[in-house]
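Q: What does the assembled structure look like for these inputs?
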Amino acid sequence: MKTTKYSISIKNDDIQIASLVLYTVTLRSRKLACIEEVKTHEDHRNKGHATRLIKIAIEQARTLGADVIELCTRYPEFYTRCGFTEDGNVRMRFGLNSGHVIKW
Ligand SMILES: CC(C)(COP(=O)(O)OP(=O)(O)OC[C@H]1O[C@@H](n2cnc3c(N)ncnc32)[C@H](O)[C@@H]1OP(=O)(O)O)[C@@H](O)C(=O)NCCC(=O)NCCS
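A:
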């Protein structure tokens, strides 16, 4: 499995306005992309910067040969507007420091 990380950002006079991280993961039979750490500077929100970055990331993932882009978010509405769809999977978590004892 090979993972590659790409940082994509919009800057103005060297000040970072918006950014995200795109990962590609090459599995045995397919190439998966993931988007993480999407953020826009508080003073520059609601001007379309994050939407523009998502579009750039989608095109980059396509150019890199990914089959699909996956992400986890608490704000699915934002990504729905960018063309993402919910896949019906339920995200679950096991906290390794939770102290939970497994009784098999
Ligand atoms: C979410 C975030 C990246 C949006 O950045 P942005 O550059 O303002 O986004 P855009 O201008 O492209 O899009 C703004 C639109 O998204 C909507 N939006 C913004 N934050 C949203 C949220 N948390 N949930 C749903 N919609 C949201 C806005 O209402 C706006 O909609 P409108 O155009 O209909 O008014 C920015 O608010 C941010 O950095 N938040 C803190 C970090 C964060 O929560 N990141 C995780 C993102 S999933």
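The longest helix spans residues 49-63.
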